[in-house]
Amino acid sequence: MTTLYDFQAETINGGAKALSDYKGKVLLVVNTASKCGFTPQYTDLQKLYEQYQSEGLEIIGFPSNQFGEQEPGSNSDVQSFCQINYGVTFPLFAKTDVRDENAHPVFQYLTEAAPFQGFDTTQPSGKMLHSFLNEKLPHWMIDNSIKWNFTKFLVDREGRVVKRFESTVEPLDMKADIEALL
To answer: Locate the Thioredoxin domain: which residues (predicted)?
Structure first.
């Protein structure tokens, strides 16, 4: 049975990192961007990291420029931006394609393990993103791929995907799900 531990990815500093290095940890895997309406989620992701890291939570960010070109900088630019503006100390990986034919195998696995279930259209941000994608990129809505920046995947200590949270879900709203795995 495939788990997240079967993959590796390039770190933001250029080295290869086996995700099996996170065995025994609860993981939150997030595709990120520096110039997105959801970018302020970095603040609460960092709060979650600080609160739960000692209990076994790791957050790993994968910057991507696939959504409105909202991550145009180099890996070094991304790292500096995250540290200076949001105090990010959780690990970041190299800029990565997270959807379509060039999607990194990590995201192919994540989206297969946790299919898209739709947006919560009772919330303004969910309604807005649902409408925007249906109007501008309707073909994106018919599969399980990543829909936008800051899609989050919660992975248990055995490397199995437990839950997918769309971009519109605020990080602090995931606390109960995280705590259940710690």
So the answer is: 1-182
Evaluate whether 104 touches 98 at the Cβ level (below 8 Å): yes
Which tokens sit at 131?
């409408």
Model confidence over 42-98: pLDDT tens digits?
999 999 999 999 999 999 999 999 999 999 999 999 999 999 999 999 999 999 999
Buried/exposed code over 121-145 (b: 16+ C-beta within 10 A; e: otherwise): eeeebbeebbeebeeeeeebeeebb
Query: Could you say which of 6, 36, 79, 91 is catalytic?
Result: 36
Length of the chain: 182
Distance CA 88, CA 23 (A): 22
> Is 82 annotated in the active site?
no
Domain boundary assignment for the chain: 4-181
